[in-house]
């Protein structure tokens, strides 16, 4: 029988949750790296026993951990993220030039085909690649070197490159997203990049031109591997869709109670079934009316239904961060969310019903799942 | 012989228990002690001082002989009691919430 392994990064360590395909009974292992912030942890699609974790504290900075046995043991690998060439400046919150400074890794994205190749999205926004299992890192400097780079500004959470989305059918193409610059796409394996933000509107935030080429606070983008030209986006406000690989976007917020949120995910087997977790507003990072609800659209957007069964429907004021929702590839598709209140919920029926796997972890920053044979 | 007391999280990373004992060739300074630590425990590179600039991380402090050496230049000699191994050189994670 298949199994699932859920990789949970929290503010005070990493946890690994495992179950068989029924997803009813769970074993919880951890904390790994107790006391450290685990911003993200993800397994290699090419070798599921190869895991990577981004470990950080304000005190001691960035450490990268690698496991070759599904998380039973870990070894540190390289943690030198040195910007390529002249560092240059971007814009600070007050609009003055500010030197690019590495702060931490936000997202690790292992290659779909090679367990030793992975990408790291970092703050201040840049993309790094390792081809030796994380031992050494090289910046893909064409991104930060884009003409617009000196004009990028941080969002409230820092200027982070938080989403790395390789096109599963085209090894030369990849999408990334930066808060608050927007989406960029490469078609030459990371040498050059183009902004992909046409159709995004950021009124009343910080842009003098709400439809500027860059400067949008994109929170997350997602795709279905069978249809990589169709992208879904949760933006600072607005849920968006692109049908032309990011060249243009249109809004699909439809009947959502709020179109503010952080994560967005696509069902593993239904490319037009998508999930978001609306929160009240940009300052009220909790669900409307204290009711935690995942919203599902089966129509690729615009028509949304609230999924509430098993989720707290009163006095609930947690958030689900951008890397804290994921789906497995079982049938029916499992959906997982982790909250800032330390709960990890699983739905083994594509969102219809939810049960908590754990209730009392530290703040959950990321949730990834591996479907194992 | 120089004795160095690392904070618990860095001891865990380096997989050491108790104080680290180092032999330093040449003058014992903050810089030469940190160089030797990073040679012996490469996993600690970047955790005490920045990889590129060599600057002490903001929440890491250096103490010895009841003195705060955090802002001393890297080539400042360590107190002779540290050089003789009578007192440890303390690498401390600053008290801060989180």
Explain briefly what this protein structure is.
Chain A is mainly β.
As for the number of domains of chain B, it is 1
Major beta sheet summary of chain A: 4 strands, antiparallel
Beta-strand residue fraction of chain A: 35-45%
Q: Radius of gyration of chain B from the CA trace?
A: 12 Å
User: How many structural units, i.e. domains of chain A?
Assistant: 1
If you had to describe this structure to a student in words, what would you say it looks like?
The complex is a heterodimer of chains A (373) and B (98). With 373 residues, chain A is mostly beta strands. Chain A contains 1 helix and 30 strands. Chain A is 1% helix and 39% strand. The mean pLDDT of chain A is 96. In chain A, the strands form 8 sheets. Chain A has a 4-stranded antiparallel beta sheet with strand order 3-2-1-30, with no helix packed on it. Chain A has a 4-stranded antiparallel beta sheet with strand order 4-5-6-7, with no helix packed on it. Chain A has a 4-stranded antiparallel beta sheet with strand order 10-11-12-13. Chain A is globular, with a radius of gyration of 19 Å. Chain A has a single domain (3-372), classed as Methylamine Dehydrogenase, Chain H (7 Propeller), CATH 2.130.10. Chain A starts with a strand and ends with a strand. With 98 residues, chain B is of the alpha+beta class. Chain B has one domain (2-93): Ubiquitin-like (UB roll) (Roll). Chain B is built from 3 helices and 5 strands, in the order βαβαββαβ. Chain B has helices at 8-14, 30-40, 80-83; strands spanning 2-5, 20-22, 60-64, 67-68, 89-93. The model of chain B has no long low-confidence stretch (mean pLDDT 94). The chains are: A mainly beta (373), B alpha+beta (98). The interface between A and B is medium-sized, with 14 and 20 residues.
């Amino acid at each position: 029988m298949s199994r699932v392994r859920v990789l949970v990064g929290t503010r005070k360590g990493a946890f690994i949750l495992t179950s068989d395909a029924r997803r009813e009974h769970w074993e919880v292992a951890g904390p790994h790296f107790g006391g450290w912030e685990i911003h993200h942890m993800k397994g290699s699609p090419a070798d599921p026993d190869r895991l990577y974790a981004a470990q950080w504290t304000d005190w001691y900075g960035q450490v990268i951990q690698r496991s070759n046995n599904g998380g039973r043991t870990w070894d540190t690998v390289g943690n030198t993220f040195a910007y390529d060439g002249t560092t240059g400046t971007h814009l600070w919150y007050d609009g003055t030039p500010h030197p690019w400074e590495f702060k931490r890794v936000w997202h690790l994205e292992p290659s779909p085909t090679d367990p030793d190749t992975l990408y790291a999205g970092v703050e201040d926004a840049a993309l790094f690649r390792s081809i030796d299992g994380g031992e050494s890192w090289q910046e893909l400097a064409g991104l930060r070197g884009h003409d617009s780079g000196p004009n990028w500004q941080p969002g409230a959470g820092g200027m982070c490159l938080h989403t790395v989305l390789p096109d599963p059918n085209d090894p030369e193409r990849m999408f990334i997203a930066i808060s608050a610059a927007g989406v960029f796409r490469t078609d030459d394996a990371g040498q050059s990049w183009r902004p992909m933000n046409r159709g995004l509107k950021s009124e009343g935030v910080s842009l003098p031109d709400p439809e500027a080429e860059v400067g949008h606070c994109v929170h997350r983008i997602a795709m279905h591997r069978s249809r990589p030209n169709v992208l879904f986006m949760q933006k600072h406000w607005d849920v968006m869709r692109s049908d032309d690989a990011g060249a243009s976007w249109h809004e699909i917020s439809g009947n959502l109670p709020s179109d503010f949120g952080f994560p967005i995910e696509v069902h593993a087997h239904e490319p037009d079934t998508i999930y978001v977790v609306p929160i009240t507003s940009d300052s009220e990072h909790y669900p409307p009316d204290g009711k935690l609800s995942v919203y599902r659209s089966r129509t690729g957007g615009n028509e949304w239904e609230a999924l509430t069964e098993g989720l707290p429907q009163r006095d609930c004021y947690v958030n689900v961060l951008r890397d804290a929702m994921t789906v497995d590839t079982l049938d029916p598709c499992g959906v997982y969310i982790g909250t800032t209140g330390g709960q990890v919920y699983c739905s083994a029926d594509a969102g219809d019903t939810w049960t908590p796997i754990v209730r009392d972890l530290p703040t959950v920053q990321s949730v990834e799942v591996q479907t194992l044979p | 012989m120089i004795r160095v007391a690392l904070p618990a999280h860095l001891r865990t990373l380096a997989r050491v228990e108790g104080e680290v004992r180092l032999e330093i060739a040449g003058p014992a300074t903050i810089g030469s002690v940190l160089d030797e630590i990073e040679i012996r425990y490469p996993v600690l590179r970047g955790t005490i001082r920045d990889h590129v600039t060599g600057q002490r991380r903001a929440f890491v402090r250096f103490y010895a002989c009841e003195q705060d050496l955090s802002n001393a230049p890297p080539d400042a000699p360590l107190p002779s009691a540290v050089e003789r191994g009578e007192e440890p050189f303390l690498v401390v994670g600053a008290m801060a919430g989180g």
